[in-house]
Structures are given as C-alpha cells and as structure tokens.
C-alpha cells in the first residue's frame, strides 16, 4: 500500500487537484467525499482487489474465532453463535467472492434477486456471516472504502431481521449489523459467493 510519505510530490499534488476538481464539478458524491476524509490517511492508494477473489472458510473454527481473526476495532454485541449459527460443513472450504454494486438505492430483496440472476450457469449467492468474516480477515482495508454487506438471512432481533456487514467509523474497522428491510444507498457493496468445485 502506498502512503502519503512515500508518494512523489507531483503525484500528491495530482491527487489533491483531482479531488478539488471532482468536488467543483459535482463529480464526487457526499458519501464518497465523507469516506475520503474519514480515512486515517486520505491519500493512501489501496491495492485493488480483483473483480473475483478467493475466500477461505475454516468450518473447524467457532464464530468467535472467526471474528477474532478479523481483528476488528468494534463489533456489534448481537453477533453471537446463537443468533448466527455457522452453516455447518466439514473442514476448509474455498469460495469465489465478488461485490455487486448497483449504484442506486435498492431493497435487500431486489439486490438478492439481481445477485442470483447475474449468472444462471454458475450462480452467485448472497454472503453468509462466515463469508463476511472471511472477507474481513483476508481484505481488511476494503471496508474502509465502502460498506460490504452479506444479505443472506441473518438474525431476528427484537422482531426485525438483521444482516452482517463490514464498514468503517472514523478510523475504526467495524463488524456491524444492518436491518434487512433497509433500502440500501448507492455506496453499498453486496458480497456474493459461490463454492469452488
């Protein structure tokens, strides 16, 4: 990862000018600007994650061990093994993962429909808690860019369904819960997976 201390002066000036022009032209959304300014180092250039990436889930681990492996700064206390049982499988399982980004407000139900319809020959499924946790461990900096949501049915808490997600609050990496009946804003990314044969 490149940081501000290692950027050549011309590159830093270019990044600053680019941001200024985007703000001037209205080519950057308020959400994008907020995420930019909340980073510990706004000029950090993250290493890009491939369009399709690998996730490994070790079903020999407990939910608590999977959470600990992600080294989150904060986690919602309602994320428990009782509320989010692992979808039992033996051993270590490899998955392909990818983000779905609809760039518009969308309901959970419609997002799931679009995820499932994207590739009928080798279908994608909305991520479960174990996939979200594997992603947080494998790609810890990604959640600093945008919220990453796992839409597979989660837990019912106080009469409402909640799903897990990764995000950043200030400089802290968080493992959060979101209401399933939300309409998601355009910045959200939805994690989808399919098992590797």
What's this, in brief?
The chain is of the alpha+beta class.
Characterise the protein shown here:
This protein is an alpha+beta fold and 197 residues long. The chain is 27% helix and 27% strand. The protein has 5 helices and 11 strands; from the N terminus they run H-H-E-H-E-E-E-H-E-H-E-E-E-E-E-E. Strands 1, 2, 3, 5, 6, 7, 8, 9 and 11 form a 9-stranded mixed β-sheet that branches. Helix 3 packs parallel to helix 5. The chain starts with 8 loop residues before the first helix and ends with a strand.
Task: Name the features.
197 residues; 5 helices; 9-stranded mixed β-sheet; alpha+beta; 11 strands; single chain; two-stranded antiparallel sheet
Largest sheet: 9 strands, mixed
Number of strands: 11
Element string (H = helix, E = strand): HHEHEEEHEHEEEEEE
Alpha carbon gyration radius: 18 Å
Structural class: alpha+beta
Task: State the end-to-end CA separation.
Answer: 32 Å
Q: Please mark out the parts with pLDDT under 50 across 5 or more consecutive residues, or reply none.
A: 1-8, 43-47
Count of helical regions: 5
Query: In one word, what is the shape?
Result: globular
The proportion of residues forming helix, as a percent range, comes to 25-40%
Question: How much strand?
Answer: 25-35%
Mean pLDDT: 83
């Amino acid at each position: 990862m490149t940081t501000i201390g290692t950027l050549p002066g011309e590159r830093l000036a270019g990044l600053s000018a680019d941001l200024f022009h985007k703000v001037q032209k209205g080519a950057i959304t308020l959400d994008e600007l907020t995420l930019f300014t909340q980073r510990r180092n706004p000029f950090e250039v993250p290493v890009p994650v491939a369009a399709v990436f690998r996730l490994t889930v070790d079903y020999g681990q407990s939910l608590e061990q999977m959470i600990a492996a992600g080294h989150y700064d904060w986690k919602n206390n309602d994320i428990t093994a009782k509320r989010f049982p692992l979808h039992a499988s033996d051993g270590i399982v490899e998955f392909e993962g990818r983000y779905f980004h609809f760039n518009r407000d969308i309901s959970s139900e419609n997002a799931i429909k679009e995820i499932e319809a994207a590739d009928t020959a080798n279908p994608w499924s909305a991520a479960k808690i174990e996939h979200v946790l594997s992603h947080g461990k494998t790609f810890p900096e990604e959640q600093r860019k945008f919220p990453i949501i796992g839409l597979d049915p989660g837990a019912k808490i106080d009469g409402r369904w909640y799903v897990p997600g990764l995000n950043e609050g200030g400089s802290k990496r968080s493992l959060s819960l979101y209401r399933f009946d939300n309409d998601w804003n355009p910045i959200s990314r939805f994690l989808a997976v399919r098992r590797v044969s």
